[in-house]
Amino acid sequence: MKFQPVIGLEVHCQLKTDSKIFCGCSTKFGAEPNSQTCPVCLGMPGSLPVLNRKVVEFAIKAGLATNCSISHRSVFARKNYFYPDLPKGYQISQFEEPICRKGWLDIQVDGIEKRIGITRIHMEEDAGKLVHGDVAGLEEGSGVDLNRACTPLLEIVSEPDLRSSDEAVAYLKQLHRIVTWLGICDGNMEEGSFRCDANVSVMPLGSETFGTRAEIKNVNSFKFVKQAIEYEIQRQIDLIEDGGTVVQETRLFDPNSGRTRSMRGKEEAHDYRYFPDPDLVPLVIDADWVQRAHGELPELPEHKQQRFITEYGVTGYDAEVLTASRSLAEYFEECVAFHHNAKAVSNWIMGEVTRALNDSGTTIDACPVLPKTLADLLKLIDSGAISGKIAKTVFDEMWRSGKEPGAIVEEQGLLQVSDSGAIEAIIDEIMAANQGQVEEYRGGKEKVFGFFVGQVMKASKGKANPALVNELLLARLKG
């Protein structure tokens, strides 16, 4: 029997606010344990939550960017369960009336476009964190760090429209690009700012009845999401084919073994005993608020990507790379404003700039080569002042020292030689010293031409104009 996977993702996106969702405590990552807490996020009796307006604004923008309807009225609920890092004994979330509903994202896998439905987006607070053993500075046992408690989250729940691990990763990457583009999430998966739970089931090919699903909790990298889903699909198929039954449960993925393991039986909604939070009144969002949020949205990545193709004439691949982040897209456009050869700018950003960023572990926001100075370097190439090869040397020095390209060229004597007489003199010397290769070329062995080009460039220390070298050399060799 052949099987069809069915996958839905629940993505938890930590919002980039300065303070928590229901109190004024800092959300800064990496502080001393329990140093960013107060009676509200500690769940002390009598403390009252106060909703952070910025969280609502971010939720509205996320909903608009993912084609959701924004609810005029939404309600906060208490999700009741016990865990050591949940001091209240419940988590404030949204259940029956979330802030955003019925959206979608388009993804592309192997050149095929597919629309993935989004069931809902809701606001909630994060729980605290259990830290075990030596990591917590303890000889044994575990410690509870409540700095993360009450940190604002958006939970973005997809429809079960995904049918492969590749589709799941494509959807996750698209969502990651959007929330970081909007500036509402830093997208740091290692720190848990962007993580997902994957609901995976299998059904016989051609069936319309979904199988029993297992939920893989808190996967925090694209690579691990793919591995976890693929392992879980095969585990369920093997289990069914061996005559077993898939049970609904929560599982954890172990990246070291590449396997999932059972964590607990999967709770249903009634297990959480949801009810409206009596301390928080229903949230009412009027049309003006939504309209203002819409007006504040930046040009979204898919629109910018298409505009780059039509306005700047770059390829679809180039446009996709250049819009990988909002900062990179802005860097490209600022550079093109100073140097109108968009293809040359694109090539250099995807080539030398990206290489230097990767080698140094730097982001484009901290790039020491500013758009204007990169444009000035490209102008030197176009004017014939330096060759493309010399330009790479100049770029490395710009990156290291922060100097202007013109100053580096002048200081190091890197101006390109375009004097025909000087180049002809070098060619004559090379030909005189290599008569055997000259005869080979004239005898029909045209591959020898590359040898002569290399010798001339070496003799000129890379400064000779390559186009002029080719032209003059060809004329000399042909006699």
Strand arrangement in the largest pleated sheet: 2-6-7-10-1-11-12-13-14
Q: Which structural class fits the helix and strand makeup?
A: alpha+beta
Q: Helical stretch count?
A: 15
**Main beta sheet, described?**
9 strands, mixed
Fraction of residues in helices? 25-40%
Distance between the termini: 75 Å
Q: So what's the overall shape?
A: elongated
Rg over CA atoms, rounded to whole Å, is: 30 Å
Number of domains: 3
Which spans have pLDDT < 50 for at least 5 consecutive residues? Answer: none
Report the strand count: 16
Strand content: 15-25%
Overall mean pLDDT stands at 91
List the helices and strands and how they pair.
Layout: E1 3-14, H1 53-65, E2 69-70, E3 73-74, E4 76-80, E5 90-94, E6 100-109, E7 112-125, E8 129-132, E9 142-145, E10 152-158, H2 165-182, E11 194-204, E12 214-219, H3 222-241, E13 249-254, E14 259-265, E15 275-276, E16 283-284, H4 287-296, H5 301-312, H6 316-322, H7 326-338, H8 342-360, H9 371-382, H10 388-401, H11 405-411, H12 420-433, H13 435-442, H14 448-459, H15 466-477
Parallel strand pairs: 12-13
Antiparallel strand pairs: 1-10, 1-11, 2-6, 3-16, 4-5, 4-15, 6-7, 7-10, 8-9, 11-12, 13-14
Give a written overview of the molecule.
The chain is of the alpha+beta class. The protein has three domains: 3-289, no CATH class; 299-411, no CATH class; 420-477, Arc Repressor Mutant, subunit A (Orthogonal Bundle). Helix content is 40%, strand content 21%. Strands 2-6-7-10-1-11-12-13-14 form a nine-stranded mixed β-sheet. Helix 2 (165-182) packs antiparallel against helix 3 and helix 12 crosses helix 14 (448-459). The radius of gyration is 30 Å and the shape is elongated. It starts with a strand and ends with a helix.
